[in-house]
Structures are given as structure tokens and as C-alpha cells.
Specification:
The structure is a homodimer.
Chain A: H1 11-16, H2 20-29, E1 46-48, E2 54-64, H3 76-94, E3 97-107, H4 125-139, E4 144-151, E5 156-166, E6 181-185, H5 190-209, H6 222-232, H7 238-247, E7 252-256, H8 260-271, E8 274-278, H9 290-295, E9 301-306, E10 315-316, E11 319-328, E12 337-341, E13 344-347
Parallel strand pairs in A: 3-4, 8-12
Antiparallel strand pairs in A: 2-5, 3-5, 6-9, 6-11, 7-9, 8-11, 10-11, 12-13
Helix pairs in contact in A: 3-4, 3-7, 5-6
Chain lengths: ~350, ~350
């Protein structure tokens, strides 16, 4: 957060409400000067340092209330976590080592104020947002090195991730070859199923609110909890991306942020190939539907291709790896992606990423 | 623009309205693969390459309709120009060489559609926004290397600038020393005066709209035009920042984005010093008031300090350099910034950056 931009929050009223601590808290909790961040928050720019022979990988991801999250459904910690996870997942897909994050935050005034007197300055929406974001940053050694802050009629964040990758070694979308096998990390569809659970919980909580003393607590089974975790606190596959890049095993890679059908289509387009997916091989998240696994999005797993003879392990850094199909030649009149289910074959259209629209 | 995010625009209706060209246009007009951008738009991350012994400088700037610009006052080309100029100005203040820009854009659907049939796909708000942004990028050799695109209830942009600066040579805010002279580039207050002119013009145009055939054309004098240019199309002082850094002349530097009083206060805070400004020396923009020069903001000139004996030229790369005051010791009970006008001395409070609030 550059000091000067913090003035776009109203300082005098911020002081009255005891929020000024927020800004100094952010600065305190954010990037300390280190080898990879020689200059953090507080000047016109932050400075990052690469090792010799490394390129910088950069990605930006915009999240807007009502479109990427719902203020009345998503806990603020989850909104912060997911914002950073989206960026880290893009680094993972390139096999890049995270260096630092930058956060631009636009917030309605209400989200910077505490609800009660005791909570002022400590448990406001925005401090809880930072709690979620910084906890994930700590887990992946990704300090917050700067950003911007402004009042906005709609809550939004734009996260920028900077990472490092050796020259010419980044995993790209455009290098899948005919005959390669297609793999995914983890399970698919959990985030989409979790979003359904979240919607149901929000509606149940809303209904219970009118009946004080009548609610018996919300029902959350282990399966539901696992789906909610997949949606609210997805784990970017940074370790797995680094492993694949270092071993030189993957030919192409992408992260599954918009849904398998959409993201695999991107690989096909950029590589000039087609793909066949075996529906029976898909690692569907417990309780999720096949449609959610195919189109759901926001799972932030990696999809990668590797030569047919490559020795791809069943697990990388504790996460299961599943072969789900193969890369085939593009042919006129044939679908870009074909879904095989037993003896049936059907064209798989890209249907990812709609959510709240 | 990562391909996958462009799906957050509705593709099917975009195709119907002939807007799909926008996305391919952006990709075509954006960063080509080069030595400093080995991989541009189209993968999970873009890749940037530094020279040996360089740090990466990164800055992000959020611009939100109603706060940083007004859709019914600002031409879209100006909104795009100003978004990029803010970021380039931050690089200039560090003495960094621009490498590439990243743009996250949130837009209401109306701004991606043409108003008439003939204009569809060519002169929509967003294409004019890109015209302004990319023209400035061309002028400062700053390609657009990536970003994000989403539908948003409010128009907003977040610009990320990446630049390069030799290790340990960046101009920082924190290195002003007691006895240094204080300088600014160009003139001050022009952008604030230009904003007043813009408001007047918008009101006059609005009034004329009700009286078809009665308007005699808007009155725009040369002075007004110069003020409007300062506000709508500010020139970031990239060349001047690079010159100062290469010559090792400046002790500290900052860009004047929030107003002289606010930005000089940042230098004083970060350097642990105080400052005296001579009101008679200020290079006030033609037709601007002293208050606008002191507090107006958005001039995007550089403020820098240099040793009292440093030979600072009267002009750098075609832009005037003016000594406006000096760095003095902090003393209890003395103002951080003192404004001297003839024999009078007064404390100068930081009053920058309010604009539309």
C-alpha cells in the first residue's frame, strides 16, 4: 500500500473510528525488506530482485463483489484467501516461484468500519480480508509488497503476483503434443459443489434469523465441509508446478480456474491440438456432479500434458495426480474436446465460469 | 489480457454485437514478444526479462469512475492515458526504465457496446480507452503485456507498471538531507485548474444540449486548452527521472500525484526532515491559483532534492526545472512544511487529493 494512496480513505474520520491502525497494521504485516524484496511498501514503487538467469512471471486477477464473490455469503477471510489463491495458481501453472504480491483494493466505506465499539480497528471486514490473504501468503512465502487503496461503490480487489522462473523453462499452454497424456492434480468439482452448499447455508441462516431460539444449528456434514473448503479456501498447486517444471516432465500446463472444459480448450487452441477425456477417469470431488467436475471452475488444480512414456507419479507433494485423457490431432468436423463415457463419445463444449451472472 | 478472463465478458452476445474484434484487437496491439517481454498476452502469466544487475520496480494504481474520473466529463482516451500516466509517473519517481504495463479493467456492459450501428466494434468507450492508453504506452516504449477483464457495476481500472532500475540506485523518498535544495519539474496546478475548466465545459455543453441551434460553440482559450491538456493528458517525467538517476544528482524523489503539500510531506516523513517552500518561486501553471499549485495534485511532475552545491540544470530533456525551497531540520513545535511568502511564514498543511469526494 503506497502511503500516499491511503489518503483516498478519509483519514480524519478513519482516526475518529480508530481505523488508522489498519494502515499501519498492513504495513507492519506486509513485506519486510528481504533478498527478494529490497524495498517494500512506502515508496512510489516496490523493488523485487531475481536471481541470475530468471525471468519474472506476472499475472493480475480482478475480483468484484457480486461477480466473483458475494458479501453476504463469503466470509471476508475467504475473499482475501481466494484473491491471492487465484494469482498463486497462475504462477503454479507456469512453474514459477512466488516472489511477492501486490493488492489494489476498492472498498465501500462500510467495510472499513467495525460493527461494534469493541471491534473497531480489529475485526472489520477489511482486516479479516487481510487475515485470509496474509495467512495464505505466509503459507506460500509470498509477502505483500505494495498495492493501492481507494473508496469504491463496489467492493473489489485486483491481485498482482510476481514470480521467478528460469529462462526458457516456464510451463506454457502452447506446448501440448499429439500423443501426450493429460493429467490433473487433486479433485475436480469441489469448488462448484461448495458454492452450492454456501448458497444453501446462507439461505438457511437467513431463514433462521427470523426465528430467534428456533434454529438447531446448521447441518454441515463432513462431505459438505470438504466441498466448502474447496470453494472457500482452495490450495494453489505451487509445489506441484515447481516440481513439474524442475523435473521437465510436463509439456504444457494451465490452472483450472474457469473449469476443465474451458481451460483444456485454451490448451488445445494455443497448442493447435484436440483432446479426448475419459469421463470414468475424472477425479470427481466427493459429492460433486460430473457436470461440476467438467465445467465448475475455481478448483485451482493444475492440468498438464506429458509424453506418453513419461513416468508421472501418482502423487506430487502430497496431492494425487490422475491421468484423464490424451492429446489427439485436430480434424475438420471433429470436436476440440471429446468426452468418452464407456462406449459413448460426445463433443465437450466449454461451459466454464458463469457463477453469479 | 489472459485469454481465459476475457470470458467474463459475455462472448455470445459480444459476437452478436461485433465486439469480439475488441479482444483480438487488444491482443494484436499489445506487447509483441521482445527481449524485455519474452511472453506476452495469452498464457497464465506474462514473462519479463531484466538485464543483469537490475531490480524490478512495481507499482499499482486503481482508478474508479466517480472518484478518479467522471464518465460524463472525461473523454475515454483521457481515462486510458491518465491510468497509464499515473503508473509511469511512479516509475519516473524511482528513476526506473519502463518495461511493461498490465491492465485490469472492470466495465459495465454499456461501455463495451458501440452507440450506433456503424461504430460497433470500432469506437466504443473501451476501444477509445485503449487508444489513449496504448498511444501513451507507445510514446514511452511501454507495451501492454497482460491484465484482466471483467464486467463490473462501476467502471474501473487497475494499472500495474513494471520497470527496471540498477541495484541500489533507485531514487527513494527517504534520502532527503538537511541543507538539500528542493526542485520540481514543469509547472504546478495546471491539472487542478484543468479539472475546473472541464467541469465548466461539461456544464456548458449540458446547458447547450437543451437549446438546439442556439449554441455558438464552447469558448476554449489557449490558456484553458493548456490547463485541459495538463489535466486530461499529463506527461509523466520518465526521461527526467532516468536522467536524475543516471547523473546521481538527486538525493530523494517523489512524483506529485496528490499535490505538492501532500507529496512533500511524504518525503519529510520518510526522510525525517522538514521543508521550507518559497511561494514566490513556485512555477504556477498559467491561469492556475497558488492553492491549486500547492494542493491540486495530478500534475505528475517530479519533486526531488539535491545537495546545495549540486549543479542542477534549468531544464532536463526539454522540461523546466525550478528550485522551490530547501530541506531543514525537524524541530518540536515547528511545522513539517513552512510556506514563505516575502517576509511571512506560515505552516503549510497537506491538503492534497480530494477531487470528487
Amino acid at each position: 500500500m503506497r502511503t500516499k494512496r491511503t489518503e483516498s480513505f478519509d483519514f480524519s474520520s478513519a482516526i475518529e473510528r480508530g481505523e488508522l491502525t489498519l494502515l499501519s497494521q498492513i504495513r507492519k504485516r506486509a513485506a519486510r525488506v528481504s533478498e527478494q524484496v529490497p524495498l517494500g511498501i512506502g515508496d512510489d514503487c516496490a523493488l523485487l530482485r531475481l536471481s541470475a538467469g530468471e525471468d519474472l512471471a506476472v499475472t493480475t486477477d480482478l475480483s468484484i463483489a457480486g461477480r466473483h464473490f458475494q458479501l453476504d455469503w463469503h466470509p471476508p477471510e475467504s475473499v482475501g484467501h481466494r484473491a491471492l489463491a487465484r494469482g498463486l495458481s497462475d504462477l503454479a501453472a507456469m512453474g514459477a516461484r512466488p516472489l511477492a504480491a501486490f493488492l489494489s483494493l476498492g472498498l465501500p466505506r462500510g467495510l472499513t468500519a467495525g460493527r461494534g465499539r469493541k471491534s473497531a480497528g480489529s475485526s472489520t471486514w477489511v482486516t479479516r480480508f487481510y487475515d485470509g490473504l496474509l495467512a495464505l501468503g505466509d503459507a506460500y512465502k509470498t509477502p505483500l509488497a505494495g498495492g493501492d487503496l481507494a473508496e469504491s461503490p463496489v467492493a473489489l480487489s485486483d491481485i498482482v503476483l510476481a514470480g521467478a522462473v528460469p529462462w526458457g523453462r516456464a510451463l506454457v499452454r502452447s506446448a501440448a503434443r499429439v500423443g501426450d497424456a493429460i493429467y490433473v492434480t487433486g479433485t475436480l468439482g469441489g469448488a462448484a459443489a461448495g458454492l452450492d452448499r454456501l448458497r444453501e447455508l446462507a439461505e438457511a441462516a437467513s431463514a433462521a434469523r427470523g426465528q430467534v431460539g428456533r434454529t438447531k444449528g446448521l447441518r454441515v456434514s463432513a462431505e459438505m465441509a470438504s466441498q466448502l473448503a474447496a470453494h472457500l479456501y482452495p490450495q494453489p498447486r505451487v509445489e506441484q508446478g515447481l516440481w513439474l517444471r524442475r523435473r521437465g516432465l510436463a509439456s504444457a500446463a494451465i490452472d483450472i480456474s474457469d473449469g476443465l472444459s474451458t481451460d483444456l480448450a485454451h490448451v488445445c487452441e494455443e497448442s493447435g491440438v484436440a483432446a479426448e477425456i475419459d469421463g470414468n477417469l475424472l477425479p470427481v470431488h466427493a459429492g460433486a456432479s460430473l457436470a461440476q467436475a467438467l465445467h465448475g471452475g475455481e478448483d485451482y488444480e493444475l492440468l498438464f500434458t506429458a509424453g506418453a512414456k513419461a513416468r508421472v507419479p501418482g502423487e506430487i507433494a502430497g496431492v494425487a495426480i490422475t491421468r484423464i485423457g490424451r492429446v489427439v490431432r485436430q480434424r475438420a468436423g471433429r470436436a476440440q474436446i471429446t468426452l468418452i463415457s464407456g462406449r459413448e463419445k460426445a463433443a465437450l463444449e466449454a461451459h466454464g465460469w458463469e457463477h453469479f451472472s
